[in-house]
Specification:
This protein has 17 helices and 16 strands. It has 566 residues and is an alpha/beta fold. Strand 3 and strand 4 form a beta hairpin. Helix 4 packs antiparallel against helix 5. The longest helix is centred in the middle third of the chain and has 29 residues. Keywords: Hydrolase, Protease, Serine protease, Signal.
Length: 566
């Protein structure tokens, strides 16, 4: 009941912005170990980087056999940035002439594609949360149902009325258990309807008090008599009682009449106003007007535009700098492999969560246009079944073509063994995906990001992603931290391996990266966790946080790849 009561008081959706990344201000430090420290090694520089410089020492007599293509599926990018423009992918079959030269249904997709764009050049600047999208899809079917002791009720003519169960109980259960906890709209709508329940039971409580204490002024002491732990269970009654009881603390009074006037009598109106305010604010992200597709139809796939320089492009630009920034030019940080080709596929905006349709189509676009490595936005907890199938199919498609797919975790301090996030290697119920790599950030001291999600089997490895100097928008450079930077570090190292050992598949590269980490096994580290819904900290052995028990290492990966190829 506690969880249900809390849902009525607060929105439980994940309200962290999609581009959880950018720090402010550049750095005046000049040592590489203070800037693009992911290139460095502990033995030479005293930091837990990826040993990229060391890898190049080994590769100095070898030639690049392939320019690997890295698809950054996420935000926009500044393709003309001075430090990354040499590494931007160019579609060899397309010309900037306003025509669909390669006949793929997308005009002038020279450097990638914006799945959040319209034909007139407009772009979506914010997105809804997946939970709110699902609430609006299912609202008319299930939002008015309430349950108590296995029975179903609705508010009919402002009265709580028993009704038959929903026809599709499986879908209703999904709505109640999955959608409601992740939708602010669902939570506020439920709070509005609960207002009627509060008022109805409040009348019953008054009648009971009048019978027990006739002519008396009622306080919290008398009100507590309305709760009988031995009485037959009535969930809605218990919820109403709990909410009214909280009112005594909320309004700092012992007078039940005050609570009735301030809280009970206004419950419906306040709930309605709260919901309508939230609905006005987040019920539409403009997709219908700007993009114009049906986001629930995977076959409606000819949409978007080629606008890649967008308001949130700083995230993608920093990722590109880590992967392919020009090495040795004295500008910004050195990219891990400046001979990579970086493709930009925009599915994310400044806020909200990407549409799964866009991500699935972006994966297929990347594979069909020769990508060797794909980087996805953060995992998510809510994947509607039909749309989850689109993602599973796209990931299997990438697996079949030998493409490595990298996805970062969220910074939520969650144990991935206890709470499922998608995509993951077991998401389609069949054999484990072999090409999907789940990553989290680490710092230069070899410690995991304090608040990243973790899991001894579910998270593959940690990679540099804290206080990293990289390219920023408009030929500038900044220091940033975040899971997106960690995924870029992994993408860069994977691309480096692919460049020199092009016959390796995505699954093989994943295994090489897993088995060639800088081992931190046996090292005890501090980590953020969630206890009873609250942030806390605990000590873990590094191997209890991720499958590899270590941090990404380019030098050891190159050595392993070289042995594998012989």
């Amino acid at each position: 009941m506690k969880k249900y009561v809390l849902l009525l008081f607060a929105c439980m959706g994940i309200n962290i912005s999609y581009a959880q990344l950018i720090g402010t201000g550049g750095s005046t430090q000049k040592k590489q170990s203070d800037l693009d420290w992911y290139n460095c090694s502990f033995d030479k520089d005293g930091v837990y980087g990826c040993e990229v410089n060391k890898a190049y020492d080994f590769l100095k007599d070898k030639k690049v056999k392939k320019r690997p293509i890295v698809a950054l599926i996420g935000t926009g990018i500044d393709v003309e940035h001075e430090d990354i423009k040499q590494a931007i992918w160019v579609n060899p079959k397309e010309k900037a002439d306003g025509k669909d030269n390669d006949k793929n249904g997308r005009i002038d997709d020279i450097n990638g594609w914006n799945f959040l764009g319209g034909k007139d050049g407009q772009v979506m600047e914010s997105l809804m949360q997946e939970g709110d999208r699902e609430f609006l899809r299912l609202k008319d079917k299930y939002a008015d149902y309430m349950t108590s002791n296995g029975e179903f009720f609705k508010i009919v003519n402002e009265k709580l009325t028993k009704v038959p169960a929903p026809e599709n109980l499986t879908e209703y259960t999904y709505y109640k258990n999955k959608v409601m906890p992740e939708s602010c709209l669902a939570s506020t709508y439920g709070g509005w309807k609960m207002g009627y329940v509060i008022q109805e039971y409040a009348k019953k409580f008054k009648e009971e008090l009048n019978a027990k204490f006739p002519g008396q002024k009622y306080t919290v002491k008398e009100f507590q008599e309305c709760y009988d732990p031995k009485a037959p269970q009535d969930t809605l009654r218990d919820v109403a009682f709990s909410l009214i009881a909280i009112g005594f603390n909320l309004y700092k009074t012992d007078d039940l009449d005050v609570i009735y006037k301030a809280f009970v009598e206004t419950a419906v109106q306040r709930g309605k106003e709260t919901y309508e305010k939230e609905f006005q604010k987040i019920s539409s992200d403009g997709r219908k007007d700007i993009v114009g597709d049906n986001y629930l139809d995977i076959n409606d796939n000819k949409y978007g535009n080629n606008v890649l320089l967008t308001s949130e492009a700083a995230t993608g630009t920093m990722q590109a700098g880590i992967v392919g920034g020009k090495r040795g030019n004295g500008l910004g940080g050195d990219g891990i492999i400046d001979q990579a080709e970086i493709m930009c596929l925009r599915v994310g905006a400044g806020s909200g969560e990407p549409y799964l349709k866009d991500m699935a189509l972006a994966i297929r676009y990347a594979v069909d246009h020769g990508s060797d490595v794909i980087v996805l936005p953060q995992q998510n907890t809510l994947y509607p079944e039909n749309q989850k199938a689109w993602m599973s199919e796209a990931l299997r498609y990438a697996e079949g073509k030998g493409v490595l797919v990298i996805v970062p975790v969220w910074e939520l301090s969650r144990d991935l063994a206890k709470q499922t996030f998608f995509p993951n290697r077991w998401m389609d119920g069949s054999k484990e995906l072999t090409n999907l790599m789940v990553v989290a950030p680490s710092d230069k001291n070899g410690n995991p990001s304090m608040n990243s999600n973790y899991g001894a089997k579910e998270l593959d490895l940690f990679a540099p992603g804290v206080n990293i100097y990289s390219a920023y928008m408009g030929d500038t450079y900044k220091t940033g931290s975040g899971v997106s930077l960690a995924s870029a570090s992994v993408a860069g190292v994977a691309a480096l391996v692919k460049a020199y050992y092009p016959n390796l598949t995505g699954a093989q590269i994943r295994n090489i990266l897993l088995n060639s980490v800088t081992s931190r096994k046996g090292v005890e580290v501090e980590k953020g966790i969630i206890v009873d819904g609250k942030q806390a900290q605990d000590l873990f052995l590094f191997e209890d946080l991720c499958l590899s028990g270590g941090i990404l290492n380019a030098y050891q990966a190159i050595m392993a790849a070289d042995k594998f190829g012989k």
